[in-house]
Write a structure and sequence with these properties.
The structure holds two protein chains of two kinds. Chain A has eight helices and 15 strands. In chain A, the strands form four sheets. Chain A has a five-stranded parallel β-sheet, sandwiched between helices. A five-stranded antiparallel β-sheet of chain A has the order 10-9-8-12-11. Classes of the chains: A alpha/beta, B alpha+beta.
């Protein structure tokens, strides 16, 4: 154990660790592999415990990603990221001069990285991990909420937003009505729903939220109110509240 | 009028009346046609069925008829009545008789609307006779016993009215045909759209999965030849299925289950003993048709979320069973339960989308936390 550098491999898949281990074999004289971790938590413990010089860090792991691991470390090793990410995500890496290896790992590319590391030390130390984590999270495909879970007995049903025609609050319960006329009870109150639902849902009255896309007809009513006729099975009629009129007009382009 | 006058001369004398009548008939028919096309679907059919126009016109006609009778006696004292009335009369009588006929015609023939060409011809002849009758009727108060003189040109006017009517009808039919063609086109487009949507849903296989699997192959190659070979074969099987050369949207339960298993075999090479699974099809359900790739996204979710946290060993159970006469597909795992504010991701959404396109209104997807964490799809009999 008189190698110059110590190294740790972090990856949640054994075959991937095998791959790196075999690639490291020819550097036995300079790099000594002192441990392997298979998730973020293990990695943190191992790195803090053994304080290695080099860490080969998988970015996508089930419990946390590679940047999260780095941001929780007190010991700062030199890091080579290993990732199966698509090209677009890697642009951010390149801009921050972060060294990375693409899965499946090419031998030539691996050698280049090692040699660069041994020659120049690591540029990763200057990287603002927190900022990188932020960029990284932004690059993740945004999860678009498209449905609302409702409980029916033991079941959780997902009601797609496009199916919902309106919500009504009655006696402390919020009911959800679908375009086919089915009724479900939601656990959330109207205020929580307004925050959660996409823009095409509109609060039109103290106790009603309406799906804009399900409005079939709008009739004028007295006192700055409107009657909305919905395109659902019952052709539901909803009278809007006086205080909501300007929002409704804006939203519907009236 | 003198009885010795010839027919040609008679027509020449009445040429103004004739023109007026014709133009008025044309005007009224055009107005009627315009009204007809302005009215939309449901209102139009109510309008025609209850024949509101017909009733109004009949009322106006009755008022006119009686004022004319009364007026003849009243105005006879005035000198220019004799000059004025024929023109006015001709004008009104023609117009009104045309509209009355038109409405009577609708009233009598409404039920024949979609009938054959012969029925149409019979309708036109009835209409033709009705026009003549109405004109004779409306002229009676003026000409009285002299009515015989005016008879010869009624058929001509009636013929014109019928021709104009047929023309209107033809245009209306042409329009409705065009509309139908357009609807058909939309339907076709919808079909194409559905295919495109399904294609898009199929094509979206996670690239991470591919790269990670290939990396595993590269990693295993030097250590375990057998495992490497198995992995390469499983991977190609899986991709062959996902490429979907035959472009079929449906597959059988058996095939879909096999693919879920292939997927799990690949993942098991990556995650080894941490991932275990059991697959079961109740006998008789193997050939049941289901959309392609509705199990795999659920299994992928189980793997992705199941290995999160402290869970050391993930167990996935895939079952196809009868739920009464319906098919139940269930993917259970021992991972963390679905959260209260669970937000479905792309995989689950794609399952919904495929079922929506291929089994609209005939399926249910439900998540359970009790007694086991599972996603369950219930599909009513084959399409």
């Amino acid at each position: 154990m008189n190698s110059e550098f110590t190294a740790i491999i972090v990856d949640d898949e054994r075959p991937a660790r095998l791959m790196l281990r075999s690639l490291l074999e020819k550097y036995q004289a300079t790099i000594c592999l002192i441990g392997e971790a298979q998730n973020g938590k293990e990695a943190i413990e191992l790195i803090e415990g053994k304080k290695p010089d080099i860490v080969f860090l998988d970015i996508q792991m089930p419990d946390m990603n590679g940047f999260e691991v780095l941001s929780r470390l007190t010991w700062q090793p030199m890091v080579i990221f290993v990732t199966a990410y698509e090209q677009y995500a890697l642009d951010a890496f390149r801009e921050n001069s972060i060294d990375y290896l693409l899965k499946p790992v090419e031998e030539e590319r691996f050698d280049q990285s090692i040699q660069k590391l041994l020659r120049l030390g690591n540029s990763n130390k200057e990287v603002d991990v927190a900022a990188m984590l932020k960029i990284f999270n932004q690059l993740q495909p945004k999860k678009e909420i498209t449905a609302l879970p409702v409980k029916v007995g033991q079941k959780i049903l997902l009601i797609r937003f496009s199916e919902i025609s309106y919500f009504e609050s009655r006696d402390g319960y919020v009911s959800l009505f679908t375009s086919t006329g089915k009724e479900y009870v939601s656990d959330l109150n109207l205020q929580e729903l307004v925050e959660k639902l996409p823009d095409n849902f509109l609060r039109v009255q103290k106790s009603f939220i309406v799906n804009k896309d399900s409005i079939k007809e709008i009739q004028r009513y007295f006192n700055n109110r409107l009657i909305l006729i919905l395109d659902d099975r019952n052709n539901s009629k909803i009278t809007t509240g006086t205080s909501y009129i300007s929002q409704i007009r804006n939203a519907l382009g009236l | 009028m003198d009885e010795s006058i010839s027919f040609i001369e008679f027509l020449r004398n009445r040429i103004d009346d004739f023109t007026y009548m014709f133009l008025t008939a044309l005007g009224f028919l055009a107005a009627y046609y315009w009204l007809y096309t302005k009215l939309e679907g449901k209102i139009r059919s109510i309008f025609l069925r209850r024949n509101i126009v017909g009733l109004i016109v009949l009322a106006v006609y009755s008022v006119y008829y009686f004022t004319l009778l009364y007026g003849k006696i009243y105005y006879q004292l005035e000198s220019n009545y004799e000059k004025l009335v024929p023109y006015l009369h001709a004008y009104y009588s023609m117009a009104i008789s045309a509209v009355v006929c038109f409405n009577l015609y609708y009233l009598f023939t409404f039920k024949l609307a979609n009938s054959s060409r012969w029925a149409q011809a019979v309708k036109n002849i009835i209409f033709f006779l009705l026009v003549i009758l109405a004109m004779i009727g409306s002229n009676w108060p003026i000409y009285g016993t002299n009515l015989l003189h005016t008879i010869p040109f009624y058929p001509m006017v009636a013929l014109m009215v019928v021709l104009v009517d047929s023309g209107c009808r033809y245009v209306i039919r042409l329009q409705s045909l065009k509309k139908k063609a357009k609807e058909l086109e939309t339907l076709k487009l919808k079909d194409q759209l559905m295919q495109a949507q399904l294609d898009a849903l199929h094509a979206k296989i996670n690239p991470h999965f591919l790269y990670n699997s290939l990396n595993s192959i590269a990693g295993l190659a030097l250590i375990d030849g057998h495992k490497t070979r198995k992995m390469a074969i499983s991977l190609s099987k899986f991709f062959r299925y996902s490429i979907n050369r035959e472009n079929s949207n449906l597959t059988t339960v058996k095939e879909e289950m096999e693919m879920a298993e292939t997927y799990l075999e690949i993942e098991r090479v990556r995650f080894e003993e941490r991932l275990n699974y059991e697959i079961h099809i109740e006998p008789g359900l193997e050939a049941f048709k289901i959309p392609r790739f509705i199990l795999q996204p659920l299994v992928e979710n189980s793997v992705k979320h199941g290995l999160r946290g402290d869970l050391r060993e993930l167990f996935i159970r895939i079952h196809a069973s009868y739920e009464g006469k319906k098919l139940s597909l269930s993917v259970q795992d021992n991972g963390l339960p679905f959260a209260e504010n669970f937000e479905p991701g792309y995989g689950l959404k794609s399952v919904y989308d495929k079922l929506d396109l291929l089994f609209p209104g005939k399926y249910e997807v439900a998540l359970y936390n009790n007694p086991e964490k599972q996603v369950r799809i219930i599909i009513e009999n084959e399409r």
